[in-house]
Amino acid sequence: MRNETEIIDLVTKRLGGQRGGLPEGVRLDWLRLGLGDDAAVINTGGRRRSTGSPTDDLVLSCDQFLEGVHFLPSLHQPDAIGYKALARATSDLAAMGARPRFFLVTLALQPSRTGEWLEQFAGGIRRAAREFGMTLIGGDTSASPKIAISITVGGVTRLDHALTRSGARAGDSVFVSGTLGGAQLGLACLTARPKLTRNQIPKESLERHLRPRIRLALGQWLAGSGEVRTKIASAAIDISDGLSTDLHHICHSSRVDARIFAPQIPTVNIPPAIRRLPRMRRINPFELALHGGEDYELLFTVPRRLAARIPSHYKGVKLSRIGEIVARPRQKKSARVELVDSAGRAIPLKPQGWDSFRRDR
Amino acid sequence: MRNETEIIDLVTKRLGGQRGGLPEGVRLDWLRLGLGDDAAVINTGGRRRSTGSPTDDLVLSCDQFLEGVHFLPSLHQPDAIGYKALARATSDLAAMGARPRFFLVTLALQPSRTGEWLEQFAGGIRRAAREFGMTLIGGDTSASPKIAISITVGGVTRLDHALTRSGARAGDSVFVSGTLGGAQLGLACLTARPKLTRNQIPKESLERHLRPRIRLALGQWLAGSGEVRTKIASAAIDISDGLSTDLHHICHSSRVDARIFAPQIPTVNIPPAIRRLPRMRRINPFELALHGGEDYELLFTVPRRLAARIPSHYKGVKLSRIGEIVARPRQKKSARVELVDSAGRAIPLKPQGWDSFRRDR
After folding, report:
1. Cβ-defined contact of B55 to A69 (cutoff 8 Å)
2. Within an 8 Å CB–CB cutoff, is residue B192 touching chain A?
3. B245-248 long-range contacts, Cβ below 8 Å, gap at least 24?
4. Minimal CA–CA distance to B310: which of B176, B216, B214?
5. What's residue A24's pLDDT?
6. Of A108, A125, A252, B332, which has fewest CB within 10 angstroms of its CB?
7. Does residue B355 contact residue B248 with C-beta atoms inside 8 Å?
8. Averaged pLDDT, B241-268
9. How confident is the model at residue B20 (pLDDT cuts 50, 70, 90)?
10. Is A348's Cβ below 8 Å from some Cβ in B?
11. What is the predicted ipTM?
């Protein structure tokens, strides 16, 4: 039995590619970035007739959203499933700094859900598509005993301006947007037994779980895709699996290590009324922030000379400097991330975020 | 309960698009063809620096391949599942006349299949990818109690040279490549009870079912994407659901009717040893050809002035003229396809091909 990273490595290897770079035998004239990042980047290599400037890079990514694995129809309304399906996929475009353009959907569902359920599901996708400025350009449907949704999203960035996981360098600062752990808190409240009342569940955390806010504007700004033409971030990823896992992804792709400071991690506020409930005692805001997935905040690195450009908030979203990138000793193959507490003690931080293949799920 | 066409119509409508043309509010500068065809067509609008000619159109399509719906792990080897998953998706590029370039895969599977099964599955995809000249550029994996594969494929055509379903006009001839019904015959033999021996099963039909040959070279030639720069076909589709259903798709998109001639339909040869078996008595080559899916042959229409250019074989693949496109009376909204027998009698041909939502499955 393999974990998700091992599976991806195996498939990549078997298909003759390699992670973190261009697959073997690839025609470099169109593929700019292959497997192993949040998205692939291609360019058809033209120039605009009017200005002579190169045409945009096209950024492509795919994501699946499965009944029983990622959501439960008994817990989640079809509208929220539709919204979140497109939002999570599009979050990969945010992590690349791309402007979303289009998406393709394959949808498998029970014949009994092709009435009202499907109407509401489609309504949820539409809300997300309008919000992100995307057009549905392709799809495929099939009957199936379980709902399976798979979405490919496409967006654009200026040539060579896409943010990757592989650009972090020693000395860069590590930043994160918003607060972490809210989506997991929402899920924990939703699945608590005995049930919490709707009033007990913190609204914001429930929203974070059901309708994640993705950081498109921030990503575009960090990529220099907007009015500011400078690429500010050296690397970026969206936090879908959890901070501990996603920071390892950046370190792995960039061949560096990292150190993050516990007191600087923006944790979610757990209302006292929730904290006092015996069935919620095991919920720890710090654990949620480190290993809880689905916040879809951006984790990014910024070179020292540009770090002063990062404001405390960008368009209302808090930005926190949580650590720094450090060089990896030559003989070490795997990435090491350290968590430093307020007393200056460092402990290794293992990737313990979401992995659907892990045994303990 | 809706059928597949109704579901696609509903989702399209709910998402603010329209079939057979450009969705509402679409930026025409990049989207050339939206929903309702075998694939979407986009163009980033550049010109090549060297020649000044426009850059290629990018053709994108998605397809799903599901355990229990499209294949059974007890019947189908993982290598064949991998090969066919990519082949069926790429057949949509053949139907558009595109040259395949890349693909993205989402894969859900049981943790117990992440060993040998996954290795062989990846091997099957690789064989197909090499054969078609494609590179894997993105993917996502997840644990799941059933296998679900979803693939997005991308290819290129010369600007405005993609073949669509909507270009058929009254007077055009209707052609089909190869023979029809072989894949369904292979499936029928594989699932016959009591079981047939491997020797009894016609090898070619089994191959057609397990490892469909897709018509990339033919599609590119018909689109004028190769050495011949003229677009020869006015419309095209790949026969994935069955001739009766896919011809209706062309007629629907082109707002025309069609007439096909029974004696000219290239049916599969059923070996006498098979025909004599009581459990295979209900198998009728003509029914297989009309309504059997998964042959992945091309069904295409050719304007009268170009019909003489169609050879009896193209690169070893037989091409048969099976009928003609006729004008649709103004007051009629839905397409009518007639089947004409050797005595000249015409009967209406309903779309009776594959639809995973149909009740009788």
Report:
1. no
2. no
3. B245/B291, B245/B293, B245/B351, B245/B352, B245/B353, B245/B354, B245/B355, B246/B299, B246/B353, B247/B174, B247/B299, B247/B337, B247/B349, B248/B335, B248/B337, B248/B351
4. B176
5. 46
6. B332
7. no
8. 96
9. very low
10. no
11. 0.91
Q: What are the pLDDT digits (tens) for B165-215?
A: 999 999 999 999 999 999 999 999 998 888 888 888 889 999 999 999 999
The percent of residues in chain B predicted with pLDDT above 90, rounded, is 68
Q: Would you say the pTM of this structure is higher than 0.80?
A: yes
Does residue A22 sit at the B interface (CB-CB below 8 Å)? Answer: no
d(CA A185, CA A214): 18
pLDDT of residue B19: 45
Token duo for residue A209: 């779980």
Sign of CA dihedral A183, A185, A190, A193: positive
Which residue from A18, A39, A308, A253 is spatially nearest to A154, judged by alpha carbons?
A39
Q: Would you tell me which residues 49-68 of chain B have a C-beta closer than 8 angstroms to some C-beta of chain A?
A: 49, 54-56, 58, 60-64, 66, 68
pLDDT at res. A46: 79
Bridge partners, residue A191, by sequence? none
What residues contact residue B45 under an 8 Å CB cut-off, 6+ apart? Answer: A46, A48, A55, B29, B30, B55
pLDDT at B21: 46
Query: Which residues from chain A sit within 8 angstroms of residue B23, using beta carbons?
Result: 135-137
B:300-329 residues touching chain A, CB 8 A cutoff? none
Are residues A327 and A170 in contact, defined by beta-carbon separation less than 8 angstroms?
yes
Which distant-in-sequence residues (6+ apart) come within 8 Å of B360 by Cβ?
Answer: none
Element (H, E) at A244: helix A243-254
- Chain B positions in Cβ-Cβ contact with residue A90 (cut-off 8 Å): none
Please report, in angstroms and rounded to a whole number, the separation of the first and last CA atoms in chain B.
Answer: 14
Partner residue opposite A56 with nearest CB, options B44, B104, B361:
B44
Asked whether the beta carbons of residue A8 and residue B101 sit closer than 8 angstroms, the reply is: no
- CB B97 within 8 Å of CB B163: yes
Distance CA A241, CA B279 (A): 52
Token pair for B120: 């062989």
Q: Does A340 touch chain B (CB under 8 A)?
A: no
pLDDT of residue A16: 58
List the strands of the sheet with A99-109, edge to edge.
A31-33, A40-42, A57-66, A148-157, A99-109, A135-143
Establish if A110 touches chain B: CB-CB under 8 angstroms: no
pLDDT in tens, B86-133: 999 999 999 999 999 999 999 999 999 999 999 999 999 999 999 999
B142–A contact, CB cutoff 8 A: yes
What digits encode the pLDDT tens for the residues A252-301?
Answer: 999 999 999 999 999 999 988 888 888 888 889 999 999 998 999 999 99
Between the alpha carbon of residue B49 and those of residues A48, A318, B183, B201, the distances in Å are 9, 43, 46, 55
Of B6, B55, B137, the CB nearest to A60: B137
Sequence-ordered strand ranges (E) for chain A: 31-33, 40-42, 57-66, 99-109, 135-143, 148-157, 173-177, 235-238, 257-261, 298-302, 313-314, 317-326, 337-340, 346-348
